[in-house]
Amino acid sequence: MTAPTAASAPPRRMVPLAFRAAGLGLVGLSVGLAMAVRGSDAADPLLTYAVVMTAACAAAVWGLWLAVDRYLLRAAETLGREAGLIAHGNAEGAVGGRVPLARYGDLQPIARAVNDLSDKLAQVRRDIARTVAESTAKAEEQKTQLAAVLRDLHEGVLVCNTRHQILLYNQTALDILHLTGELGLGRSMLHFVVAEPLTHTLERLSLRVREGRHVNHEHGTTAQFVGATTDGRILLEGRMSAILQDPEPGSDEPPVITGYVLTLSDATSELAALGQRDALLREATEGFRAPIANLRAAVETLYDAPDLGPVDRAAFESSMLDSCDSLSRRLEQVSAAYRSVVTGSWPMSDIHSNNLINLVAHRVGTESPTTVTLTGLPQWVHGDSHGLVLLFAYLIEKVHGLTGATAFDLEAAGPQDGDRWVYLDLVWEGPAVPSATLDSWLDQTLPGGLGGLSAGDVLQHHRSTAWSEPLPTSDGSAGRARLRVPLPPAQSPRSAHPRPRAGARPEFFDFGLLHQPLATSELGRTPLDRLHYVVFDTETTGLSPSTGDEIIQIAAVRVVGGRILTGETFNTLVDPKRPIPPESVPFHGITDGMVAGKPTIDAVLPQFRGFVSGAVMVAHNAAFDLKFLKMKERAAGVAFDCPVLDTMLLSRMLLGNDGDHTLDGIAERLGIEVVDRHTALGDSLVTAAVFLRMIEMLRERDVRTLDDAIRGANILVELAARERAF
Fold this sequence. Notes:
Elements: H1 11-39, H2 45-88, H3 108-151, E1 156-161, E2 166-169, H4 171-177, H5 195-210, E3 222-228, E4 235-245, E5 256-266, H6 268-304, H7 310-344, E6 349-352, H8 353-364, E7 371-375, E8 380-383, H9 385-403, E9 407-413, E10 422-429, H10 435-442, H11 455-461, E11 467-472, E12 478-487, H12 511-514, E13 532-540, E14 551-560, E15 563-573, H13 585-588, H14 592-595, H15 601-612, E16 616-619, H16 622-631, H17 633-636, E17 644-646, H18 647-655, H19 663-669, H20 680-700, H21 706-725
Parallel strand pairs: 7-9, 13-16, 16-17
Antiparallel strand pairs: 1-2, 1-5, 3-4, 4-5, 6-8, 9-10, 10-12, 11-12, 13-14, 14-15
């Protein structure tokens, strides 16, 4: 890096130089005058007075410098760093990123101006969100009215076991299925109803119950689906409710699904009418194209005809063009109405992106040459789970056939640039899919799709589209590509009502743990964006490991190549062999009953050490977590000797000591919002997202390698140790 010129030197370099020069000059003058007085034979009162006044001026200059440095220059530097951090964020809350005014004294007008600019940006984003909300209000009203009508319909009821054998049914079910005596007890439901929607819905409920999400899930143990009879004559709209068998008292196992209840209604007439309208609209749109083409051909013919007079030609051309424009406008109106009818009638529900991607990976299967890796931060979307699973499994197969790619990342990305869409991105090594090829794929029928459903139909049901684009690598070459599908966000996102948390963990310093040797090897010279990380977090009974507090939960997520591998996590509760203080429960939400019977820390730490093997460990306020781990190393027979990076120290490097370095504060200003916040795994995901954003910011500060980051953190630790020594 080249040294800055005098004209561009920062104030923190030029101003202290000027003060020091003035102070040293006055000190030198004072010393010279003092020596002159001492060397003179007769005391000169004026000379003595000059010495005293010069010394007083020197002291005043130094005092003025200390005041300017503390209350102006340091505050201005911190304010600049805070403004830079806000500029890197993309928060969309009630207000923009905030600079605390009380901290900046005489610089409050500048801090207030930064806040005003941030608020105006937030206001623009709120206006956009408000406009979108108002435009969907009428659609929501119509949906509510339709739901009220459907609830009053008489439905058929069937009870089946997990092998889909019928245990109970009512007469209405016979009427809906148009059966007289064929539907018998003990017979398989799959003999009468297409298997795929039933098995998929049961698989969704099984995953929900197995993970314990049914307790707080909006729909509990129920899920909707659309199916059909095996002969294809009747289309069914149904709801499946799982029958649960509770585990034995004292067991930690989740409930077991022993069967399900189906409520069915005959949707053939409604969907048939919709199909007829679709056919009419499709015929109308296609029927318009030929007349329009004929009109345009006639206009071109008349334009080329040399035997018409100027007046006749002008009138004829004007009439034909008016007719053509009228038909074109009518075509657009009919097409828009067609899309609205199709989209508004398809049953959808809120879906967790991790569950959706896991179902895609399960459908791709172990026998396929392709693998699907779950990456990124989880999101909630609103859509047709079955249709989306079919769509992405189909697209993976097509991309594999076109490019030969076998490893795919599938991740959900939150709203971007102020929009409301959640993006599902399919990423692979290789070229992007040409738009013409992708369009031809979307026109084809989905394998397993109901009623000849095409890939384009699934997108149209979600008011969505799809496109493919290359992803440039860090060196500028286009080695990866993605296929992006925007989806509507969840209508009732679970993260909108997080469990309250009592407060942030206080900053914890153990200078022996924080100060690390440089890696001094190939690892230390590796750029930060190319390292393998494990971001972890612990929950504990209290804040003092030296007085008996214990770990009660450890969670971690792997970060490789700038990707958060959401599917590669470590998450376990730990039995601390001591009561959890009631006052600490609000911090983590873990009770004695939740950890009873769980493995002890001696059994968990070897597993966790294997998970972090070969990786750089990352945590927020890492010294706190490391202190608990280090105290249990000997008992567990492991050693945590990996390099460790602390996002709290990295924040201090970027923002200065006077900024807000809590995880919540940093995440809020960077606009990072994560589902399942305030759990050990949720905090690990937040820290991982913050850390990836920090890597970009550190590169701008010329902190590029692991050794650079450790060196900078060690300097901060040393300064903190000296401050505490005084």
